[in-house]
Amino acid sequence: xxxxxxxxxxxxxxxxxxxxxxxxxxxxxxxxxxxxxxxxxxxxxxxxxxxxxxxxxxxxxxxxxxxxxxxxxxxxxxxxxxxxxxxxxxxxxxxxxxxxxxxxxxxxxxxxxxxxxxxxxxxxxxxxxxxxxxxxxxxxxxxxxxxxxxxxxxxxxxxxxxxxxxxxxxxxxxxxxxxxxxxxxxxxxxxxxxxxxxxxxxxxxxxxxxxxxxxxxxxxxxxxxxxxxxxxxxxxxxxxxxxxxxxxxxxxxxxxxxxxxxxxxxxxxxxxxxxxxxxxxxxxxxxxxxxxxxxxxxxxxxxxxxxxxxxxxxxxxxxxxxxxxxxxxxxxxxxxxxxxxxxxxxxxxxxxxxxxxxxxxxxxxxxxxxxxxxxxxxxxxxxxxxxxxxxxxxxxxxxxxxxxxxxxxxxxxxxxxxxxxxxxxxxxxxxxxxxxxxxxxxxxxxxxxxxxxxxxxxxxxxxxxxxxxxxxxxxxxxxxx
Length: 481
Known about the structure:
Layout: E1 2-16, H1 23-26, E2 38-49, E3 55-67, E4 81-94, E5 97-103, E6 136-146, E7 154-164, E8 175-187, E9 190-202, E10 205-206, E11 210-211, H2 216-224, H3 236-240, E12 245-258, E13 261-271, H4 274-277, E14 285-293, E15 298-308, E16 318-320, E17 326-328, E18 346-347, E19 350-351, E20 381-392, E21 395-406, E22 432-444, E23 452-463, E24 469-479
Antiparallel strand pairs: 1-2, 1-24, 2-3, 3-4, 4-5, 5-6, 6-7, 7-8, 8-9, 9-12, 10-11, 12-13, 13-14, 14-15, 15-20, 16-17, 18-19, 20-21, 21-22, 22-23, 23-24
């Protein structure tokens, strides 16, 4: 039975002093914002049954378009207008189990009570942040369910899915496999959860190796993290290591809920190989602390996040042990990059995971969202991020401040000498500083019309990675039905 139907249209325009929109004007917006001064629109429709019922369904369809007048010049590398299917999905659920099919946004976490969008740089997941467009595919989701005989104290949850890549990339038509396994402990007001969220890019057409084998045997090898068969036509790297390009995150979350407030701490660890999965990359990780207050006015949410990705399991991938024998040390993890799948963990030019791991060509201003992207250029960084959200005078707002020290990669540092192949601490590396800020808000029911709302934002970038700029955004949302 249909419980709700919503049709809406969002129209917005954004400008900046440099011509290129500041970081927070486009980050974590599912890849629909223009790169330069321009306009964007999203037409969406969604319907669902009563989500409290054992059997439930939902569906959604949205189209997004953007136009950047500055790109409408002869010889421009990308088209000034971009149109895409933002979402097109159907979902069926029964009790704790559900199936999503199509193109659907991943739900972001650490959202404030005022509905202004995530306060976290990662959106709660360092591997899949909501920074890039959604991939088409299917996902089987198990919500937390209690393990028998544990009196509801011990729960399990998970996700299993496969996706396609449709963008212009180095290995075209590659597939993405995903599996998440999670455990949760609940005792009164306290709960603790840990999860392993794993992704593998595989298959596709490579300019170096031709068609990467797509077989049932290879699918099971991808799903279980094994190397390619010795006699197969896979690459030597796939035979020596594991088949495809693997990465993910290991997440630990603690939450305390009390009368009128809740406090959450999360430690989210990225990994790109076995050494990282085995915590050889410690202390790398994203640490998030979120306070949520059960109130309707003033400050309702406060978040602080500290990210560190400098170690990456060490400065050497291979070397000699204490006995002088050659061995694999497991370092140089090189987050979100891969030697065979050179587009790395990007989609339509934008980084799928942590947005501060800028795509290749960002600092040189050669990056274009519609062109081939060869991985990320900045995966060694330290950042501090603070965010506040709430409601003032009935108007929702969100303030975000991000300071980062960026070092590029081990093999290609932004400036100065790298730690690569050196003993840790023997090289004084040179950071490239960056500061990005955003103040956004909305005015619901403008002109006393419950169908119209106004969205606004002011942004700034200052530093030596992104262009120094000041920008503004203004949008009108229309609830058609």
